[in-house]
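A quick aside before the break. I want you to see a complete sequence-to-structure record at least once, exactly as it would be stored in a machine-readable document. Don't worry about memorizing anything.
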Amino acid sequence: MKNSAVAVSGFLAVAVSLSTPALADGHEQPDMDPVELYSCTFREGKTMADLDALDARFKKWADKNNKDHSSWRIVPLIRSTEGKFDVGYIGSWNTGKSMGAGMDAWAANTDLLPEYMATIDCGHALMASAEINAPNGPPKDGIVWFASCKVQDSASQELAFAAHKKMAATMREMGGKGQSWLFYPSLGVGDPGMDYYSVVSFNSMAELGEAWEMYYNGGGWKHGAAAGAITQCDSPRVYTATAIRMGPQD
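That is the input. The structure line, written in tokens, reads:
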């Protein structure tokens, strides 16, 4: 959402997120949680049914070996063919220590890990997640969107963070139900060409549609216009999200 991109920067960036804060004096450093992202394509002859079976086994494994881990499988819903992938995963932990222990345990899994590798070919990156507005936490199943955002040269990350917090609060006051975070590149991303992802989740497409109406026809865009001078986000890619398991939530 932005120009499309710029205008949407409001709905999106605004309705939800921001940029990695080396926050200035007087600004509180937000807590960061480690989040992993996978984007995958099926290997020849493999289908979603193969992943259904593997994901069910993964849940049982994680219940014993990676208890702090929450994970969702995502499938493209509204996305152009550019950079398209078949399926993705979002995984999160509450602490870096839990993340490291969980990754060690997964790397040592000589049963399930090779089967995943024989089913899907994936890119893998680690992000640092900061909550913008998520009073109810992420839904177990629902809709999630990602938009790539960049702070304007004339602005700063702390200004962007404040702008997103303000816009998210405005959308909430209007009745919006979206939960929002910022994902900052951490490990494995390389040169991302952006400062962060704006990530928003909804329980359903109906909730997303309500937010769309509030932004475009309910006056939300007026509040989002100022944010575009600080940070700009591209058009969000929308995915269905299905929870594999939910670890403890802070």
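Two observations worth writing down. The longest strand covers residues 120-133. Residues 48-65 form the longest helix (18 residues). We'll return to this after the break.
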